[in-house]
Amino acid sequence: MSSPAETPPASTSPASPAFFTPPAPFSTVAVLLFDEIPLFEASVPIAVFGERRPGTPEFEVRAVAAEGGPVRTDAGLTLDAPYGLAAAEDADLVIVPTWRSPLSPRPPSPEALDVLRRAHARGATVVSLCLGTFVLAATGLLDGRPATTHWRYTDLLASMHPRVEVRPDVLYVDEGDILTSAGSTGGIDLCLHLVRRSYGTRVAGTIARSLVTPPHRAGGQAQYIDHPVPAPATGDPLGDVLDWALRHLEEELTVDALAARALMSRRTFDRRFRQATGTTPAQWLLHQRVLHAQRLLETTDEPVERIARRAGFASAVALRPHFRRRVGISPAAYRSAFGGPPAGALA
């Protein structure tokens, strides 16, 4: 069996020294299922830990009806979870795989929240996947800690739980005894990470191959988020100029030239621009160029060098640091994940 001492991958935050202790192998996994939850997310930890695979540990997975009785999914299917909350009291790993809705008028029950608090207090590893982070946040266990959830809901998580340090751009956060993940497949990433940190890369790789999924994905949520910077409406000079700029990104565009085209002084242009978009003209241009490069990587098989020039960068070398800073991975890695037919020559 491989050593559990593994280097944390890039998509996780480093464990906080104040909380982190070396992870012990786990064998008993309690999965807390709430009413009206999405079926796919609910099944993720069961799929990762519940199947018997040659060469991997046998985990005891307990599907727990966190609110008692059958569990109804958001698709109307009913699940007969065989365990009650008592089954989580001695589990090594307690997972909240998802939640019905962050804005649900039905909050998590006090009994379920107490089970999670007791699990943490006795030294179990407590995990939330996707929207399950809202349940974990309701326990108070995430106060003062970094955490993540699906990128669509990170702002809501921050507003509902201001004491949580929300990280919107990572696939998961490992704080040692508490871990949180991003959206649906981010839950798979985190579950494989749990295996990897306790049982090593070979075991995690075996499970990943069985699931036909990468054992580790590069980057974070940033590569999945559409980040359009709002532009002023067409029909006013500023909006018309920016619409023109979007059609000429491959050209050398300066802020002074855009201001002149809008028949404004540079100072007026800058002020109007910030009021309309919330950012500077230079940052808007850079952002739009990276977005254009993303779309070209998704829809064409042109070499990265050519795409860089079409997006207004001097070369692929000039594109890469800006692309990585905003998207989280290199242009070539992005194309590999989201692109169409492979190019004959990729940078």
Automatic annotation (TrEMBL):
Domain (HTH araC/xylS-type) ranges: 239-337
Record carries keyword Membrane: no
Keywords assigned by UniProt, alphabetized: DNA-binding, Transcription, Transcription regulation
SUPFAM superfamilies: Class I glutamine amidotransferase-like (SSF52317), Homeodomain-like (SSF46689)
InterPro entries: Class_I_gatase-like (IPR029062), DJ-1/PfpI (IPR002818), Homeodomain-like_sf (IPR009057), HTH_AraC (IPR018060), HTH_AraC-typ_CS (IPR018062), INH-QAR (IPR052158)
Name listed for the protein in its UniProt record: GlxA family transcriptional regulator
Origin species: Planomonospora corallina
